[in-house]
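input
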Amino acid sequence: MSGKKITEVEEQSLPKARGLKKLADRWRSSHIHCLWQMTLSQRRNPYATFRMQVTMAQEMALANKQLLLLQVEHSRILKCSLVLAPFILVRQAALHQLFEKEHRQYQQELNQTGKAFYVERL
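output
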């Protein structure tokens, strides 16, 4: 009984295996064809290949230069922010005090007219 089940499973998986083998063979042949075409075009026009390599090298050099400039700019900004951090904190504290002063003044003006800030109760 179990031998019969095994042969049924093998019969069902056999077409799938053949399909996968055909797919792999087609992919391999198309891959070989693409490689052949690429080498054929390279053999046909070696100067174009050389120019393309030079262009890619120039683009890589430019990209590296831009990346280096960005890193330098980032480190400069970071150094400036470390130097300016105490001044920023002092300015924030001064602005906070000014805001509190203006808030108290506005609250006094509202109290004189009999009005108040709206406070939402949770």
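quick obs: The mean pLDDT is 78.
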